[in-house]
Each structure stands twice: as structure tokens, then as C-alpha cells.
Amino acid sequence: MIWKFKYGHPFETEAVTEHITETEEAPPLGTVSLQEGFRWRYELAKDDIVYGLGEAVRGINKRGHCYISHASDDPHHMESTQSLYGAHNFIVIAGEHNFGLFVDDPAKVTFDIGSTCSDILEISCQEADLYFYMIDGETPYAVVKQFRKIIGRSYIPPKFAFGFGQSRWGYRTKEDFRRVADGYRSNHIPIDMLYMDIDYMQDFKDFTVNGGEFEDFPGFVKEMKERNIRLIPIIDAGVKVEKGYPVYEEGVKNGYFCKRADGSDFVAAVWPGDTHFPDVLNPEARRWFGGCYRPLIEQGIEGFWNDMNEPAIFYTPEGLEAASRLMREYVEDETGTVSMFQVREALTGLQNHQDYYKAFYHQIDGRMVRHDKVHNLFGCNMTRAADEGFERIAPDKRFLLFSRSSYIGMHRCGGIWTGDNKSWWSHILLNLQMMPALNMCGFLYAGADLGGFGGHTTRDLLLRWLALGVFTPLMRNHSAIDTRAQECYQFEGVEDFRHIVGVRYRLLPYLYSEYMKAALSDDLYFKPLAFEYPQDTFAPRVEDQLMLGGEIMIAPVYTQNAKGRYVYLPEEMRFVKFMPDGSIQQETLSPGHHYVEIALNEVPLFIRSGKCIPVAKAAECVAELQSDALELLGDPGAEYWLYDDDGTYKDYDNPANRRLLKKMS
Ligand code: GLC
Questions:
Q1: Which of 234, 235, 275, 449 to mutate to test the pocket of ligand 1 (most atoms within 8 A of CB)?
Q2: Calpha distance 220→303 (Å, rounded)
Q3: Residues spanned by the domain of 104
Q4: Do residues 345 and 407 share a domain?
Q5: What is the pLDDT of residues 548-607, one digit of tens each?
Q6: Contacts of 277 (CB under 8 A, 6+ apart)
Q7: Are residues 228 and 188 in the same domain?
Q8: Quick one: which of 144, 150, 145, 149 has its CA closest to 51?
Q9: Which residue, 365, 395, 537, 601, has most beta carbons within 10 Å?
Q10: All residues at 6 or more sequence positions from 216 whose CB lies less than 8 Å from its CB, including other chains
Q11: Ligand 1 pocket member 384 (CB < 6 A)
């Protein structure tokens, strides 16, 4: 059962695609107060678990922290962090009552989940203008499935996007890219994508390519494609202010940029210096921006990543002027009225200052809507612009597309990466814990910067992280400029990297099949253990293992210097290790707790009783995978429904895409 409640005058976010009739009565659970904005309060039972919230810090069980949905460019993901890049306002309460809540409000929303008061869950919005959905179900899993159904089918990328990708902020020239391609191909480490960060552009101008460095860009795209490597350029939210730059000129002429209150185009400084933001919430401007991807597509590009779309703002001219004024006062001040701390705060507070978001407007249906009221929809609509653009440019084709900022609804248009993490062991675990939560909110194509974006990685950290990344739909190694080189071939013992990344390709037919089944039936690819074992006593408390698809459980190592880890098995399972010599070690383990040894160069997984999974022969790119030469791993007699298709077009319902495999002995 799904209840929909309307408060005030909600903004139509289009997150929910299914029609649901509004209910006049009060929500059956919890209490609503409209005294100051909107407040819903609920008393949690002692053992209730709260799932969801997509991209957020802390565990799979979100209880014990206060989270704020407010798309934020924050490269320091700490335990205390309240807001990250995405805003995913869906939670599930599991325990005495199993029910889900979706708070459809694109402004700031606070989820105090037993932080102020350990047993109180309180959701608050600054204004009472929202849709509030309540979904009940037999189990938390049943609740999630209903939610997924009403928000529409998740994005489906092309098959090559399930390969491994290398990225780094700082590749500037064709030679840089060729060197990385050579590094992978000559070391026989599989790869399918090279990501182009901001330096490929001409002066950081969206949809341009630095002509000096990338002469004959289509030829270069082709050259890479002939090596089975796709180039995936970044697109940033801000459009450089520069006379003569066509994207800028067109946007200004047609009024497609976000405006200040006085009607002038709002200016925000990002990578290129001063920029304007395309008003992607305005359908006409969105259509225009989506069309801007065309020239790159015509040059052979098949995928993009959309960045800085919270939107991130380094400073505004007004903010910079105020801070400079304060600094001048401080320098000239002899009375000590202005303190050094005020100056420091003014300078460090320049980046992403909250006031900026109240200083610009969107034009929607002839109304001016102040940005902060719809803040969480910006990245979502930038990505929607691209997706709608692709649909017009090549309607039958699948494009790779993912975004840094997102709101529920964007899961239909693209995937996400989880932003600027660090080369920290704790971020491997955070990566794992975000995955099922993201899936619950519809984001199936997701992954973290493997190896860590900020900070210097180490060989062991990268290997362990890759061994988790083997299973995440987006498998990308990405790092910041000025950090230690992080490409897999930069480390001693390259064969270990070849092996770990290679396992991804051996498992790819299975992972792709499970992804597609999840996407096509509004299901989860990653699940918390309790979703598969609702009766099990320990399963709901397991925070570092996940169920993947219908057949396997994963339990990666995420601690430094470990030689293995403890693992909990809710049922008898087959413990499988992909060994560095290419062999597969198998052992049946009884239900319960076990310590399992896992070396740095081994990839572990667990196959459930009575199940089997297909494993391919080694390949160095998706195009080389032999889908007709699959070995089955698991219990004799077990059957597996394999989904496979051409990976390029959208012929998902073709019965030829499904075939039954049976493990003989
Ligand atoms: C942002 C992105 C990061 C990218 C950098 C430069 O920090 O999150 O992935 O490398 O910008 O474009």
C-alpha cells in the first residue's frame, strides 16, 4: 500500500512516474507538525533498522546520525559529514513496522535518525511544500520493490561500461592518453575506457576540445576505439563567460542561463573562471543544453560524466568583493576591530557559500523560482538534459552517462559516481555500504573512485579496493592531480593487478546479467543480507558483506595489513577464490561465522546453496568476451538464467536475450 500526502504547493520534481492518488488523511504512522515548516516524528523501536538515503556516510543501518539532503561539493567524507553530492530522500524503517518514506522536496531536508534522541526519527523540511509518500510492506525488501516500481526503470548503460576504466585529473594531451592505453595494453591489464578530465577542453569550456593538443579529435577517438578503448569526456555545469564562445553566446541570447533577481545572468566562478549555469530546470534551456552534446557525439564519443553540478561554486564576484573588502579593512585597520579569524573565515567560506544558492533563479513555467528551493534538482536535470539529448540524437543507442550530483528520478537517465573520496581504508567500507542504499533509490549504475581520489594511494589499498570494484557496475580508478600515480601498471607486481581486473572480465557475463535483470524488473543488484535472509538473527547486523544478484554474496577485505577477514554465512555456501594463477579454489562452508584467508591478489566470493554462476575465459576488453564459452561454477544440477544482449541497443525484451544454463557436474 502506498499513501501520498500533499503539503502546501510542492514543486513537481518528476521523481515519481506512476500516478498515485493523494490521501486527505494524516499519515498512518508518526505525527506531522506544520508549525515551523514540515516535521514528521516517529518513535523507533529499540531494534528497528533504518535503511536507505543513497549516497550518505555511515553504515548500511543509518541509525545514529543526522543527515541533511543538500547536494554538496565536499571532498572530505568524514563520519560527521551530513551532506554529500546527491540527495536521495528515501528511507526504509525495518522492524516492528516495515515501511518506507519518500520525501519529495528538492530543497534541504533533514533526517535526524536517532541522533538528537536515540529512539526518535525526525524528518524536517524548511517549508511545508512537499509530497510525502509512505509505503508499507511485509518486509523491507517488499517496501523497496514497491518504491522502485513507482519511480520508473533504472538507467541501462551500454555493455562496454561494465568494463574497467582508468581516469585521472591531469591527462592533457593525446600522448598522455596513449601512454595510459599502452600501459594497460602492454601489461595485459584489461581496460575499456579512458576518462577525459577537464584538461582535454579548450580553457575549460564545455563541449570544446583543446585543438592544439587534440588535432583531429575524431581520428583520435577512432584510434582509441580500434584498440577497444572508449574515451569518456567530462562535462561541467558552468559555461565559461567568454565573448565569441558559441555555447555562451547562444545561452545569453536565448536567456538560457540562471538569472539574478534583477534579471541579469548569474555569475559563478568554477574551473574556467567566471561561468553561467544553464537553467536546466527550464525545459527549453534543458533541451538546448542537451543538444550541446551533439558535436562530441558526432566525433565518435559514446559516453560522458557530468561534474560540478551541485552546482559547485568556488566564489561569486559579489562574494569575492565582500571578502576582499574585509581583508582590506583588516590590513588598514589599526584599532583591531577586524580579526584575523574573520578574514580567514571569509576566505575559506567563499567556496560553496550557502548564500549563493539564494542569489539566483530558474525560470519555470513563466515563474522565477529561487535556486535554494529546488537546489537538489540541478545535477539531476543537467543529466536529464544529456539523456534527453541522446534520445533525440540517437534514439536506439545506449550511452554511458553518470553524474556527480543527483536526485531520485535521475536514476532513469544515468548513473552516479560517489564523488571525491580519499585513499583511505575506511572509504572502501563506505563504498560498500553506499551501494545497497543507492540501489534502493534506483541508482544501479554506481561506483566510487577506486584507489581513492584525494591523497596518495598505496599498492595494497588499491588492490583491496579493486577487489571490491570488481563487483560494482561502475569500475573506475580515478585520482586527483598531484597525487601519486595510480594507474594499475605504476606499481610493482603488475601481475596482481592484471589478475584482479581480469576477474572482473571473467565475471562480467554474470554481473551484466544480474544488472540487467535488476534494471528490467525494478529490483536490486546489491542487497543487505537481511533482504535475502529476513528470518536470520545475525544477518540484519552485517555491515560489511553484500548480496549481489540472486546467487552470490561478497565480503571484501577493507583493512590494512589484513590477511583475511571474518565472514558470516546465513546458509551453507561455496567459498570461491579466484587465484592469481588463473585457477579457482572452492570450499563449502557451513552456516555461521568463519575466518577466511584472502591474499592481496585473490578475489573472493560466496555462491549460495543450489545456485551456480557463469564464468568467462579471460579477456582484455568487453568486445573480446566469449559469451558462448562459459564455465558454470556452483552446485551440480543448479540452473542459471543468463541475460545477454548486444550491449549497444535497447532491444531488452527480445526472448533471445535469455537462456537457461545448467550445471551438469
Ligand atoms: C571534481 C571531480 C573530480 C575531477 C575534478 C577535476 O573534483 O569530482 O572527479 O577530477 O573535479 O575535474
A1: 234
A2: 15
A3: 2-151
A4: no
A5: 999 999 999 999 999 999 999 999 999 999 999 999 999 999 999 999 999 999 999 999
A6: 237, 238, 239, 257, 258, 266, 268, 311, 360, 378
A7: yes
A8: 144
A9: 601
A10: none
A11: no
